[in-house]
Write a sequence for this structure.
């Protein structure tokens, strides 16, 4: 909260009043660099712009400027060794008995002749005797059970369509064997797109020079009595809140055929929408929890996500969360600790001496999983005080126990690691549209914050002036596999 | 109707009464035997609700492995019935119900729900009833719920939501009392079935998926759908049979046609004036589209009387009040507070003269 202090009332006509104006002047002249500096300042001061801070606020390492609306990047998935059954004739109730060959159709041609296959039970093994090529349901193979017991057969349930079988090494005769083939996997291509934002400020009359009886705090801890500075501060912060939240909540809108069906009524042109952090995380791994969060749930979610990656040993995971999730997390560990008999140990930590009295309360913010992963919480203010959280509160969409807005009871794991020297999460911007600003000047005097504008030239007839800002934004996540969204839901 | 058990043989036992007693005894025995109701439900991933981002990058991202997670209300509801919780959960969590940790562990179990779904997952919600009679009572209650749902106004999406909510609430109420009369075949799957009924990410009607961004799955009650399919087929066959019989009986056909017109607020005089082929076609379409209602009308023993009353109302001889359905004569004489009462009035031998008078009036009209 900044202070309002009444001093005096009058007109003011000097331009170089405070250092805020100095920065503002630069905003028009060299917008790209100054934009980053401002983001950094807001990020450290206010904690309301974490994603902008972690990307744009880090300078070139956290951004990528491109010259097209869409961009692509290549990814390589994990080696695949399995395929699923597409069809098996269930009339055969004892498949493979007495060494009989059986015909099974798999979904793709991934399985190779001569290789072994292991059934979903992890025990039953067969050899691929013949690749019969394309078939009605996929690709047909002749399989033979490797079990030497003449009465043994494959449980037909293992051949139910949808069951995955995995390949094992090819076994061949000592001599005169034929060669086989090998599978290879190419990189996949991901696509995303930019979106554009525009913010306008119109003024009329002599508001630029109006001094009021209140003293406003400026961003750089200075003070000003000029009303327009306060108005521009609000304009600026509202714009930044919108920009930050948009990076989280944007939902991609280009159809798979490349079309966008979302048009502006005024000009008939498509309106692009990028994929925000919530969508990216949700599309990677998403789960919900109920009345309480348990360590088991956290562990299963984290392990499930991290075990997909073969490169990682123990990882330090940061969970961005609201206060509600932080409380749930604390309760989860507290309950587990109590169940393990650590009640006294907890009490010693929680109840401490304080200025001759007692102090009560310490909360868990970090946990090491049985697999050695370390989970640390980081508060994401937006989930408690952002526009969506505020609206949830007003609509009564609150958690029944904590009374906090439901968006507060969620956590998102964002992988901010460096891969091959590149930051995993970057803000993408359109070259030359990173932060465009300009003034449409009428007779109305413009404030210093709008930059240096020739006094004698008018660009419109109307007695008003406008300040226009256009930005571009997109979110690039190289590896989205280590991300997840865990959310408390009412129903 | 007399209860079969109250029938007393006159002058000693007769072969007929012996047969009846044997049949009753066999039925009683059958009703008291254990019965396993085999059923399953499947939760499928809603492919239409994939994001545009996934659709565009499907070759890399692939299909999502979505998780059925937990929810606050589901936890609360499923842990609120003491009897049910004490009946099922000791086996699931490995603690007896009198253990001080029992409730905490039950809540943990429900809050830990995490079922990965690639394309679909099937839960075995079969139930082993101690006695078949309990199963039949359960089925009868479920049929009542289904009927109420079928008859509910589901046009506007809000009404559809209300109808589904009412149905789910009713099913949950009945299911939550089943522990008194049996046990699930697979308790773990059964609890998950109960959970998905209450979990909003699993929609119970695909129409809701379009308006709900949280919808990720939809529920398919295979057993119930199969049973309803069989029932629909049976009704359809009966409707075809009834239709053929109806066309051979002009009086009954006309009576049914009048009821059809009254049901759909059609002008009876105008529709009765249509030629026979047109009228038969109308009823044929009706029998195909709604065989259950058609069969109920055809087999209604009061069909002729109701049609008679409807004709009198259409002719203005009787009046039906719009808001309370009361039927009275033109001069204000009360006939009945609804159609059922009016039927009773005209079927009453004491009112034979009145009926005769109205029948004579109708003879001079073409409808």
């Amino acid at each position: 909260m900044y202070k309002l202090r009444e001093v005096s009332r009058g007109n003011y006509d000097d331009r170089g009043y405070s250092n805020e104006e100095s920065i503002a002047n630069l905003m028009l002249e060299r917008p790209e660099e100054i934009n980053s500096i401002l983001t950094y300042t807001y990020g450290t001061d206010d904690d309301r712009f974490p994603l902008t801070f972690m990307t744009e606020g880090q300078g070139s390492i956290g951004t990528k400027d491109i010259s097209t609306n869409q961009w692509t990047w290549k990814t390589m998935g994990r080696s695949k060794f399995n395929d699923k059954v597409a069809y098996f004739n269930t009339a055969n109730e004892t498949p493979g008995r007495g060494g009989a060959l059986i015909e099974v159709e798999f979904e793709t041609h991934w399985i190779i002749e001569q290789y072994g296959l292991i059934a979903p039970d992890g025990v039953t093994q067969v050899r691929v005797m013949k690749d019969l090529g394309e078939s009605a349901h996929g690709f047909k193979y002749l399989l033979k059970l490797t079990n030497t017991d003449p009465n043994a057969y494959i449980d037909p349930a293992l051949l139910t369509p949808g069951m995955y079988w995995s390949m094992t090494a090819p076994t061949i005769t000592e001599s005169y064997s034929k060669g086989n083939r090998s599978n290879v996997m190419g990189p996949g291509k991901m696509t995303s797109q930019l979106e554009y934002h525009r913010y306008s400020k119109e003024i009329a009359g002599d508001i630029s020079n109006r001094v009021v009886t209140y003293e406003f705090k400026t961003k750089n801890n200075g003070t000003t009595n000029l009303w327009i500075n306060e108005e521009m501060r609000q304009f600026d912060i509202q714009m930044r809140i919108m920009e930050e939240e948009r990076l989280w909540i944007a939902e991609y809108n280009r159809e798979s055929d490349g079309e966008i069906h979302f048009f502006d009524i005024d000009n008939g042109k498509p309106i692009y929408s990028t994929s925000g952090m919530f969508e990216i995380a949700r599309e990677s791994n998403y789960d919900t929890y109920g009345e309480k969060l348990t360590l088991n749930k956290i562990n299963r979610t984290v392990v499930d996500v991290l075990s997909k990656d073969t490169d990682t040993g123990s990882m330090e995971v940061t969970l961005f969360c609201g206060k509600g999730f932080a409380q749930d997390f604390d309760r989860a560990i507290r309950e587990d600790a109590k169940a393990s008999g650590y009640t006294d140990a907890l009490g010693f930590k929680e109840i401490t001496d304080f200025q001759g009295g007692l102090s009560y309360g310490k909360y868990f913010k970090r946990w090491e999983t049985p697999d050695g992963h370390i989970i640390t919480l980081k508060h994401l203010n937006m989930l408690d005080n952002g526009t969506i959280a505020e609206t949830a509160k007003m609509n009564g969409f609150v958690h029944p126990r904590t009374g906090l807005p439901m968006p507060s009871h969620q956590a998102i794991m964002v992988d901010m690691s460096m891969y091959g020297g590149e930051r995993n999460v970057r803000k993408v911007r359109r070259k030359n549209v990173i932060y465009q600003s300009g003034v449409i000047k009428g007779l109305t005097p413009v404030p210093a914050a709008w930059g240096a504008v020739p006094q004698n030239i008018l660009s419109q007839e109307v007695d008003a002036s406008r300040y226009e800002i256009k930005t571009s934004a997109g979110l690039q996540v190289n590896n989205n596999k280590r991300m997840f969204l865990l959310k408390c839901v009412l129903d | 109707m007399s209860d079969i058990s109250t029938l007393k043989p006159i002058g000693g036992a007769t072969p007929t009464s012996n047969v009846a007693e044997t049949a009753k005894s066999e039925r009683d025995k059958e009703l008291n035997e254990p019965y396993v109701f085999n059923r399953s439900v499947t939760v499928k991933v809603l492919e239409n609700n994939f994001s545009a981002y996934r659709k565009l990058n499907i070759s890399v991202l692939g299909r999502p492995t979505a998780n059925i997670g937990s929810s606050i209300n589901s936890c609360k509801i499923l842990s609120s019935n003491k009897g049910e919780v004490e009946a099922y959960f000791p086996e699931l969590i490995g603690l007896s119900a009198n253990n001080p940790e029992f409730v905490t562990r039950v809540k943990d179990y429900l809050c830990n729900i995490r079922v990965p779904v690639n394309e679909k997952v099937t839960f075995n919600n079969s139930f082993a009833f101690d006695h078949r009679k309990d199963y039949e009572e359960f089925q009868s209650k479920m049929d009542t719920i289904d009927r109420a749902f079928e008859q509910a106004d589901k046009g506007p999406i809000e009404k559809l939501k209300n109808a589904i909510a009412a149905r789910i609430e009713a099913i949950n109420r009945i299911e939550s009392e089943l522990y008194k009369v049996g046990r699930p075949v697979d308790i773990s799957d059964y609890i998950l079935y109960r959970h998905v009924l209450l979990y909003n990410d699993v929609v119970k009607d695909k129409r809701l998926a379009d308006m709900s961004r949280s919808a990720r799955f939809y529920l398919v009650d295979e057993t119930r759908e199969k049973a309803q399919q069989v029932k629909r087929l049976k009704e359809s066959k009966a409707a075809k049979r009834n239709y053929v019989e109806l066309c051979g009986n002009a009086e009954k056909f006309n009576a049914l046609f009048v009821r059809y017109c009254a049901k759909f607020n059609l002008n009876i005089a105008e529709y009765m004036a249509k030629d026979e082929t047109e009228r038969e076609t109308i009823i044929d379409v009706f029998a195909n589209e709604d065989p259950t209602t058609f069969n109920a009308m055809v087999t209604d023993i009061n069909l002729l009387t109701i049609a008679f009353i409807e004709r009198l109302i259409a002719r203005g001889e009787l009046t039906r009040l719009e808001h309370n359905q009361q039927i009275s004569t033109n001069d204000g004489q009360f006939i009945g507070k609804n159609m059922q009462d009016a039927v009773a009035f005209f079927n009453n031998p004491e009112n034979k003269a009145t009926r005769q008078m109205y029948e004579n009036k109708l003879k001079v009209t073409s409808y």
Observations:
- Chain A touches chain B through 41 residues (CB under 8 Å).
- Confidence is low (pLDDT under 50) at residues 6-45 of chain A.
- Chain A has ten helices and 27 strands.
- The first strand of chain A starts at residue 5 and ends at 6.
